[in-house]
Amino acid sequence: MTQVISFISRKGGTGKTTNAVNLANYLHSKGKKIVLVETDTNYTINSLRQIELYKTKKNISDYFHIVASEDHVVADEIKKLKTLGDYEYILVDSAGKTTDKGIRALVLVTDLACVTTSIDQHDLLVTYQTIQDLKPAQEVNKKLNILLIPNRIGENFGRRAIRKSLKELDTPILKSYVPFKSVFQRTTTIGPTRRYYRVAREIMKFLNQSA
Question: Which CATH number is 3-210's, of 3.20.20.300, 3.40.50.300, 3.40.30.10, 3.50.50.60?
Fold first, then answer.
């Protein structure tokens, strides 16, 4: 059965793309059949893939699939992809300025909504609002789970400080976090970032335990 993992935030720059691409690379490296759907109309991931393939002369068939979509049609796109039965996982990198309607439609076809956030006060305010938007959908989509992923965390913050900053959001928090390091500033669609493996394993563990 195909499972859908969506990276959602009402704000750009919180790490949706970083996490979506790194998780896609991780799952692909484990032999999983996946597709990554991006709804940002700039289609950054698709453009990056084309540039990387051009520079490396690699074959596109060696890597996970990428589908360009848009906020208002992504839910229908996901339904179509699920009926194909070709994928174990559908990952969604949603647009930073997604609409209320777009969020509602997306989470109704999502198994795990990953909300990425730093512990910057402004990011936390946006994250709080994002979670409040998502929670009512759990009454309709009983499979929907929500997970906070700490992102761009400085070296001075330990796990206890992170959890203290995020506990008032009243949502499960990933034990691991994505540190503020240069390796995560250079997104690639053709190779896994091993520093992300622990984060990826915990996301998948949470998904499987919640299923």
Answer: 3.40.50.300
